[in-house]
Amino acid sequence: MRKREVVEFHIGWNACINCGACVAVCPQEPGFISAFDTIAVNTPCDIACMACEKICPVSTITHKKVRDRYETHTA
Ligand code: SF4
Ligand code: SF4
What we know:
This protein is of the alpha+beta class and 75 residues long. The protein has two helices and two strands. It has a two-stranded antiparallel sheet. The radius of gyration is 12 Å and the shape is globular.
């Protein structure tokens, strides 16, 4: 049984200053980005290290937990 959380992120676009910190710190594969060069939004992240949320200088990254059924979504 998998213990790791799966999360999806939301970004407040009005607050985001496009600093690139979230992408720079993220260990996901290179394509895990949004159209605005932030970490991907509304896309399940199965690493869930939360480094992106912690590093954001304007604290505009938030997340929600998603169900395990997303784990095989990219297979
Ligand atoms: S939780 Fe970690 S792996 Fe997932 S998007 Fe944020 S920095 Fe990347
Ligand atoms: S770290 Fe925060 S401010 Fe910087 S690009 Fe990512 S969401 Fe935007």
